[in-house]
Write a structure and sequence with these properties.
The protein is 5% helix and 47% strand. By secondary structure, the chain is mainly β.
């Protein structure tokens, strides 16, 4: 079965860094656009970043540009999100997602989702 498993979340102080990873199985990884989303308590889920099949195109929410970087390793079936200069407002449950169409990852709802990993930023 198709499965996405996130890891790397935790507690970090504002200004610090954290690296999230997502491991995929049960799908042809290189044929899927990948993305990261986040949802804070009481808030709607929001788009964070996306990357195309081969990694040639990336997209970011304005709130994370210059601080987060999405990358993928198709040989290892993984996508990563190193996060720098973390802010209190970055606190959320971060979920990995996949869809055959990049436009769906960027502006709609991807077909496959992971369970999420919690990121908590403290002062």
């Amino acid at each position: 079965q198709v499965q996405l498993v996130e890891s790397g979340g935790g507690l970090v102080q504002a200004g610090g860094s954290l690296r999230l990873s997502c491991a995929a199985s049960g799908l042809t990884f290189s044929s899927y656009a990948m993305g990261w989303f986040r949802q804070a308590p009481g808030k709607e889920r929001e788009f964070v970043a996306a990357i195309s099949w081969s990694g040639g195109s990336t997209y970011y929410a304005d709130s994370v540009k210059g601080r987060f970087t999405i990358s993928r390793d198709n040989a290892k079936n993984t996508v990563s999100l190193p996060m720098n200069s973390l802010k209190l407002e970055d606190t959320a449950l971060y979920s990995c997602a996949a869809d055959p169409r990049l436009v769906v990852v960027v502006s709609a709802t991807p077909a496959v989702w992971g369970q999420g990993t919690l990121v908590t930023v403290s002062s």
